[in-house]
Each structure stands twice: as structure tokens, then as C-alpha cells.
Design a protein that fits this description.
The protein has about 325 residues and is α/β, with parallel strands linked by helices. It folds into 2 domains: about 1-100, Four Helix Bundle (Hemerythrin (Met), subunit A); about 115-305, Rossmann fold, CATH 3.40.50.300. Helices cover about 50% and strands about 10% of the residues. The protein has an 8-stranded mixed sheet with strand order 3-2-4-1-5-6-7-8, with helices on both faces. The longest helix has 17 residues, at about 60-75.
Length: about 325
């Protein structure tokens, strides 16, 4: 059942369109696997397993899904192949429900602290800075005041890009330029957020440090200076992953979850890829809520992840 209360018609259309390549890839393969077969047998399940793995759902998550379907087949010896889509849909929906405890309200900030401090991490090229810009635009549209911190000081492009987003959206950007101390930027951004009574402070961080130790040290230092103003900051650490990279996104998630306490995920660039299954696998394997997904170029195409709507769009027939 789709939760249309949280979703406008435009957002739903955007989600449907963004998942089109993944859906076509998945169902064309399933269609070929069941062609000429009337019941779900071991051969069909073997092919389904291969299809899910090659759709970047991931081996462990695929095995879990297949085992659940096998249990249902064991109870109904003559399960019709026409039912396979529905069963697969049910099991994917169940997995997402287990791993994302609740659907989040649309671009809301917890009210128990102010400002809410969000630290954004991820490798270069995943759409991290763009995601921050789009988040800023959507929170600003909801009437929230936002301060950005350009703490990815290793790349001039990242600093400049965040400044451009700030100008475009109309939110202040704290920047010390390139090759400056990232923790000093974070310090000043949080200070400005506190001084101005901002609702949200978002800090961009370096996408690549030479070793995991460097990454851990840098993030630890950023956290320490923030805590001079807000002892519990950051309230959230969000990892941005590029959905189109498939299994590379899994590897990045492994590295960053080892290096820092990631509490939320944003998965971008799902519109240009057939690898949207990665959302299911990453959600299942890391037990970290997928908070946002990117399904297009427009600001509104960064959506709050709604598992019911995601599954509905993934399995929707026709236009």
C-alpha cells in the first residue's frame, strides 16, 4: 500500500521515472526466466537469484530474499509463475520495513535541539555537495533557516560549488577557502548557526583522505570542535552514495561505517542507472536508514525515501 499522504503526484511521477531503468532491467530478466514455465521451481529460483545479484541487490540480501521465497514455495507446491512478481514485491517490502523503522515526514528537523547539526560524508563524485545544495533548498522552502559549512577544503571546486548553491538558494555559507583547516570551518559554521538561531547547520567534508586513519582523525577533529558549542553535535552523520556505482557503493559504505558513526544514508543518481537494487541491499546489509534518494537533476528530485512508494514504483506495471 502506497502512502500517498506524504507524496505529491509530481514526486510520484519523478520517482516512477527515476526507477524506470532499474524496473525495466529487473522485469525483462524475470520475464525471460519464467517464459514457458507455469510454476516456480528450483530452476526459476536459481535464475531469480542471479537476476537479483546482477541488479546489484547484493549476494547476502539476495540469498535472504530467495530463502524467504523458497519457504513460500514449499508451502504452495504449485505456485504460479504469474505470482512471482507479487511475492518478490512482498519480500522486498518486508526487508525494507525491517531496516528502515519508519517513513520520515517530508523534510522535517527534530525539534528537541536547535540548530540540528548534520555532517555529510562520502567520496568525491557521488553528488555530495549537490545533495547538500538540494537539501538546503528544500528545507528553506519549508521555512527553515540553514547555515552551510564548506569544510571540504581539499578541493577548490567543492568550496566554490557550495558557495554557488548558497547564493542560488539564499542561505549563508561559511568558507575559509581551499587548503584551510576543515575543523575551523565547522567551528565557525556551528557558531554562526548558534548565534543566528538557525534550524539546521550542514557541514560538507572531504571526499578523499589518503588513508582511513586520516579520515577518522579529520572527522574526529571536526566533531570535537563542534562540541565546544553543542556537546551532542553532530546530531546526524549522513553518508552519500552514488547508486549508479552498484557494488562500489557497498564498498564505500563499508569503509565509511568503519571510520565513523554513520546514522543515515542518501543514495543519489538512481535515475541514470539500472542498479537501483543497490538501495535494497545497502539498507539490508548496513541496517542504517536510507533517508534520501536522488531520482533526477531537479531540486525536488532529491526525495525523502519512502519505502512503500519506492516498492510501488519499482513494481508498477505500464506507465
Amino acid at each position: 500500500m502506497a502512502l500517498f499522504g506524504l507524496f505529491s503526484k509530481d514526486k510520484k511521477q519523478s520517482l516512477d521515472k527515476g526507477l524506470e531503468k532499474t524496473k525495466e532491467n529487473l522485469f525483462s530478466k524475470i520475464g525471460r526466466a519464467v517464459a514457458g514455465k507455469s510454476k516456480v521451481d528450483d530452476e526459476v529460483l536459481d535464475e531469480l537469484e542471479e537476476i537479483l545479484i546482477t541488479s546489484d541487490v547484493g549476494v547476502d540480501t539476495t540469498v535472504k530474499i530467495i530463502q524467504r521465497i523458497e519457504e513460500r514455495v514449499a508451502q504452495d507446491k504449485f505456485m504460479n509463475t504469474a505470482e512471482l512478481d507479487r511475492i518478490l514485491r512482498d519480500e522486498i517490502a518486508a526487508l525494507l520495513s525491517e531496516n528502515n523503522t519508519e517513513d520520515l515526514a517530508d523534510f522535517e528537523i527534530p525539534e528537541n535541539h536547535k540548530p540540528h547539526v548534520l555532517l555529510v560524508v562520502g567520496v568525491n563524485g557521488v553528488g555530495k555537495t549537490t545533495t547538500i545544495g538540494k537539501l538546503s533548498a528544500q528545507f528553506k522552502a519549508k521555512g527553515k533557516s540553514v547555515v552551510l559549512g564548506a569544510a571540504d577544503t581539499f578541493r577548490a571546486a567543492a568550496v566554490d560549488q557550495l558557495k554557488l548553491w548558497g547564493e542560488r538558494v539564499g542561505v549563508p555559507v561559511v568558507s575559509h577557502g581551499m587548503n584551510t583547516d576543515p575543523s575551523a570551518v565547522a567551528y565557525d559554521a556551528v557558531k554562526q548557526g548558534v548565534d543566528t538561531g538557525a534550524d539546521l547547520v550542514i557541514i560538507d567534508t572531504a571526499g578523499r583522505l589518503h588513508t582511513k586513519v586520516n579520515l577518522m582523525n579529520e572527522l574526529s577533529k571536526i566533531k570535537r570542535v563542534m562540541q565546544k558549542f553543542i556537546p551532542e553535535a553532530p546530531h546526524e552523520i549522513m553518508l552519500v552514495l552514488d547508486g549508479s556505482t552498484g557494488q562500489n557503493a557497498f564498498i564505500q559504505a563499508q569503509e565509511f561505517t568503519k571510520a565513523t558513526e554513520v546514522s543515515a544514508l542518501a543514495i543519489t543518481k538512481l535515475d541514470g542507472t539500472a542498479k537501483g537494487g543497490v538501495v535494497i541491499g545497502i539498507s539490508d546489509q548496513f541496517k542504517i536508514p536510507v533517508k534520501y534518494i536522488g531520482v533526477g537533476e531537479q531540486v525536488d528530485d532529491l526525495q525523502v525515501f519512502n519505502k512503500a512508494e519506492f516498492v510501488d514504483s519499482l513494481f508498477k506495471k505500464g506507465n
